Amino acid sequence: QVQLVESGGGLVQPGGSLRLSCAASGFIFSNYWMNWVRQAPGKGLEWVSAISSGGSTHYADSVKGRFTISRDNAKNTLYLQIDTLKPEDTAVYYCANELLQYWGQGTQVTVSS
Known about the structure:
Structural class: mainly beta
Low-confidence stretches: none
Number of helices: 0
Number of strands: 10
Shape: globular
Mean pLDDT: 97
Radius of gyration: 13 Å
Strand content: over 45%
Oligomer: single chain
Largest sheet: 6 strands, mixed
Order of helices and strands: EEEEEEEEEE
């Protein structure tokens, strides 16, 4: 069955960086777009970024220039590099498959001094 497992979250000071990972299994990872979605405390889900099977990348305006999505198809792993973190980036970050049918358990990112 499809499994998505995120890791890499943590507590970071404003201006810091993190790299989130999402290990995928149970489907042919390289064939599909993948997404990152986040949910801030008390707020709804916010789509953050997507990457196509061919590697083209797409970002929400709120994260452009600070977030970088990438994938390693040999390792069946999706990444999200987050730079210049801001307190408003505090959220649970989820990876999800192409049609948002399958989600990981999420990884918490907290940005605070």
